[in-house]
Specification:
Pfam families: Calpain_III, MIT, Peptidase_C2. One of its GO terms (molecular function) is calcium-dependent cysteine-type endopeptidase activity. It comes from Umbelopsis ramanniana AG. The chain is of the alpha+beta class and about 950 residues long. The protein is about 25% helix and about 25% strand. The strands form ten sheets. Strands 27, 29, 30, 31, 33, 35 and 36 form a seven-stranded antiparallel sheet that branches. The longest helix is centred in the N-terminal third of the chain and has 31 residues, at about 105-135.
Length: about 950
């Protein structure tokens, strides 16, 4: 296999290093930047020192890259791949050093080189990966199957020593090696916490580090070269302890710490009561405007708003998920979580339930340190390296793949930033104590998920969870374990990738149904191209039901999620590069590896794809044209970067099942409603997005809550009681996330947002998040009328008099409404709403006239209020300023003689009485109302 031609790093170093500095770079085999521990420094880190550090990074990156190319050209592909990965890690550190916008030119050059080395490292891996899989003893069992329940097609686990390309048999680390590794980790964390001014926490970590180095020192023989090094680091750590004690005593900052042990429940490090006082909602208040996909803005620290006590209670209540407590991530103080222990950490919540396929092959729980030579959190973040195993979480693995592709392309942490502990560069690191904290977005807020590193393995030693084919890399199975813990276990019933990506990244989920009548392929493609150009959208796609024969013919899996890792347009043809989470089984249609007609040299070069080479190995990655996507996939899931929007706000809301009717088919008056005022300053429209998210506390195989939201304009932001014609009408779906998008016109626009359910089955809790390019205000629409009475009645042959054109109109049910005078002159205006509900086949009407007596006929000037026309099933009339006095309410059907039940509701903000007005000779009934809602 010939090495691809790579541009040397000399161009980079010549352009960026001071003259002559790169000439001193040593040629020959590189030394990994992490081969030795950098001791704590007490020297200044001023601009000159930082510049020297940057120059050293350039030199080291150049040296490593040169060595990688030499190995590659010599045919030493495994060694070359490792060197490329080391070069990429050094370049990532350079990007951190050059994070300021003034270095944008240098950053782009660094990113370009990093992407070249990433591509080559992945290419080298694919060839070796194919050889490993073909030699797997169970390869014959990995035949193509479309059984989405079993998810066969699993690949060899990377932890099985039979498939590791080692020169010698793997030997577990000695106790001294493990203790020394823990000492280095603890010292790193102590330095990091000191830099973050977590003085009390860093003090304890320095103590632990000194203790561990001392233990190693005492166990080593005096002639061991590590002995002097451990003694020196122990003394440096103790000196730091003394220094911090003196500093904190002087400043009065020393805080007593609780002693922890591995048996301590991890929830003890934080509590609901202490955390709740610090909950915050953020509103972004940067000014200015920019086109979609190009806008980047930072949060204004002065825009923090404390949540209401009611919102805090909701977030408390929904912290208990699947009988486990997942506390909110309040602020950076959560980084003080204890990660170092004398004994290996064991999750006090216990082991996760396994799926049926896992249970059938289960061999035990193993730690990475038990089955890996040198476990690391990240070797090379790559979508092509991730493999879904026997857990039925294709949507989750597709989400990991598309997030990994984003990190590789844009060199920005998206998914790996959620893993803790981290090093000083903000990169997650391997913890010898086996404890990890994952930050996920769930039930309205970021939350902490604590897991240990015990992973399920089969009886033959292979991993039975998502794994990376980069040997000894842990980030994917650790994130998966945290997500599965949140979902209740590895027996996860499944989700969709839009939901999973929102949980992983917090990016706004949008679900596009390809078969929807409003689907316009060209419009969707334009949005995809605009979003991916600036790195502001993540795309996944999913198939629907199909027969086994049809699936085999197309090379697709029914009801399966796929990651879209690239989007291109070449000579008018639109393409997606797609990955199957199984890492095998590819598309067989147009532009597939089997298509011998459409691939030409120009297209192959544009997409960097060689079908003949792709025929040699199946890694589940393929190109497909967008027209074929629209024909063969049923859903496109988009997740949008929330930082696109300059202004953001969130509310957290309960919806009690005992308030209002079970179904809101006609009456929306009891539903949660919100007033939205948008101020668009310029002579162009402004995007407004509304995300309704249901809080889930129990993972169920089938979600029976069909929810949506509607947007009404021309309401002045007041409460809406019946459906009418909505400005934006939502579709009822059983997804936990509903997104409504619209453009607000120039000037000030006011809307009413209404939550809706197909049928209320239980009390639910929601978060409503609003996003816009323009300033807006989002507030709750309160229930104005606190005094309410419901009257059940029935139209009979005698009392169903029909509309006013019938002589029998006077026989309709009638009531005398008496509104009391205000108790004081300063009381607000008297308001009232009258609602009538009946069978949906009945056209019904409400009339309110003066007098309080039975009405046989009336003149227009006597009418105080009435519904506009006869409406089916529901009608209402509202008066916001009605004078005290007596009135007559008449409930009628359009046709006389209809027999059926009705429900009359009167609600007001002032005291009133309601009396039925009998037909002559009948007895009246009186209701005195003082019940408040």
């Amino acid at each position: 296999m010939a090495a691809i031609e790579l541009v040397s790093m000399s161009e980079l170093t010549c352009n960026l290093l001071p003259k002559g500095s790169h000439n001193s770079v040593l040629r020959g085999k590189h030394k990994c930047c992490m081969a030795h521990y950098r001791r704590p420094s007490t020297t200044s880190s001023g601009p000159h020192v930082r510049e020297l550090e940057t120059q050293e990074l350039y030199r080291e990156a150049f040296d490593v890259a040169c060595h990688a190319v030499q190995l590659d050209n010599s045919g030493m592909h495994a060694e070359a791949r490792e060197a490329y990965i080391d070069a990429i890690q050094l370049l990532d550190r350079l990007l951190i050093q050059k994070s300021d916008s003034s270095y944008e030119g240098e950053r782009q050059l660094i990113i370009q080189k990093s992407q070249e080395y990433s591509s080559r490292a992945e290419q080298l891996y694919r060839y070796s990966f194919t050889a490993v899989i073909s030699s797997h003893p169970d390869a014959s069992q990995h035949a193509i199957t479309h059984d989405r329940k079993s998810h066969k097609g699993k690949l060899a686990g990377p932890l099985d020593s039979r498939y590791q390309d080692n020169d010698q048999a793997w030997v577990p680390k000695s106790d001294i090696d493990i203790l020394l590794e823990k000492a280095y980790f603890t010292l790193d964390q102590a330095i990091l916490n000191e830099e973050k001014d977590f003085t009390d926490h860093s003090l304890e970590l320095y103590k632990d580090a000194a203790s561990n180095f001392l233990k190693v020192y005492r166990k080593l023989s005096k002639d061991d070269p590590r002995c002097h090094h451990c003694h020196e680091l122990c003394m440096q750590a103790l000196n730091k302890v003394d220094e911090l004690k003196k500093s904190d005593t002087t400043n009065g900052l020393l805080v007593p710490q609780k002693e922890f042990s591995p048996k301590d429940d991890h929830h003890a490090s934080s509590s609901i009561s202490s955390a709740s006082s610090s909950y915050y909602a953020r509103s972004i208040t940067n000014h200015g405007a920019a086109p979609l996909g190009a806008l980047k803005c930072k949060e204004d620290e002065n825009s923090m708003k404390k949540l209401s006590s009611a919102e805090i209670e909701i977030l408390k209540l929904t912290s208990n998920v699947n009988s486990k407590l997942f506390l909110p991530w309040v602020d950076e103080s959560d980084l003080r979580e204890k990660f170092t222990y004398d004994e290996l950490f064991i999750d006090p919540d216990g082991s996760l339930p396994l799926s049926a396929l896992q249970r059938a092959k289960f061999g035990g729980w193993k730690r990475p340190s038990e089955i890996m030579r040198n476990p690391k959190m990240i070797e090379l973040v790559s979508s092509s390296a991730l493999v879904q195993d026997v857990v039925t979480d294709c949507s989750f693995v597709a989400s990991l793949c598309v997030s990994a592709a984003y990190e590789r392309k844009f060199r920005k942490q998206l998914i790996t930033s959620c893993i803790y502990p981290q090093n000083k560069f903000g990169q997650p690191c391997y913890n010898p104590s086996g404890k990890y904290m994952i930050k996920l977005h769930y039930n309205g807020i970021k939350r902490k998920i604590i897991v240990d590193d015990l992973l399920p393995v089969s009886r033959d030693g292979t991993l039975m969870c998502t794994f990376s084919t980069n040997h000894e890399e842990l980030w994917a199975p650790i994130i998966e374990k945290a997500y599965m813990k949140l979902m209740g276990g590895y027996d996860f019933p499944g989700s969709n990738s839009g939901i999973d990506l929102y949980t992983l990244t917090g990016w706004i989920p949008e679900h596009i149904f390809v078969e929807d009548k409003d689907f316009v392929a060209n419009n969707v493609w334009d949005r995809l191209m605009g979003g991916q150009k600036y790195g502001d959208v993540l795309v996944t796609i999913s198939t629907g039901e199909m027969s086994e024969e049809s699936a085999a013919e197309r090379g697709l899996v029914p009801t399966h999620a796929y990651a879209v890792i690239d989007i291109r347009e070449v000579n008018g043809t639109r393409f997606m590069q797609v990955k199957n989470p199984w890492s095998h089984l590819r598309w067989k249609g147009p532009y597939s590896h089997m298509d011998t007609e459409r691939w030409n040299p120009e297209l192959m070069k544009a997409l960097n794809y060689d079908p003949s080479s792709a025929m040699q190995f199946d890694d589940g990655i393929f190109w497909i044209d967008f027209d074929s996507v629209c024909e063969n996939f049923v859903s496109i899931h988009l997740n949008w970067n929330p930082e696109l929007f300059m202004y953001r706000w969130a509310l957290h809301i309960p919806w009690h099942c005992d308030v209002g009717p079970k179904k809101d088919t006609y009456n929306l008056g009891y539903n949660p409603q919100f007033k939205l005022v948008v101020k668009v300053p310029e002579n162009k429209t402004s995007a407004v997005w509304l995300l309704m998210s249901k809080h889930i506390t129990v993972t169920e195989p089938k979600n029976t809550d069909f929810i949506t939201l509607h947007v009404y304009n021309d309401t002045n932001g007041e409460r809406v009681y019946h459906h009418g014609k909505a400005f934006k009408e939502g579709t009822y779906v059983n997804s936990p996330h509903i997104l409504i998008r619209f453009n607000a016109p120039p000037g000030t626009s006011t809307y009413t947002i209404v939550f809706s359910q197909h049928e209320k089955l239980k009390t639910l809790y929601f978060s409503l998040k609003a996003f816009s390019f323009s300033q807006f205000e989002l507030t709750d629409v309160p229930q104005t009328y606190s005094i309410e009475q419901k009257i059940s009645g029935r139209w009979t042959d005698q009392s169903s008099g029909g509309n006013a054109s019938n002589a029998s109109f006077m026989n309709n049910p009638q009531w005398k409404l008496t509104i009391s005078p205000p108790e004081s002159t300063g009381q607000q205006k008297c308001g009232i709403i009258i609602m009538l509900e009946a069978p949906k086949t009945f056209a019904i009407h409400l009339l309110l006239v003066e007098g309080g007596k039975r009405v046989a006929s009336f003149s227009p000037r006597e009418v105080v209020s009435q519904t506009n026309s006869y409406q089916h099933g529901f009608c209402c009339c509202e008066l916001r300023d009605i004078k005290p006095g007596s009135y007559t309410i008449i409930a009628s059907t359009y046709e006389p003689g209809l027999v059926g039940d009705f429900l009359l509701t009167i609600a007001s903000n002032t005291q009133y009485t309601i009396d039925s007005i009998p037909v002559e000779g009948a007895k009246s009934h009186q209701w005195r109302v003082d019940r408040r809602i």
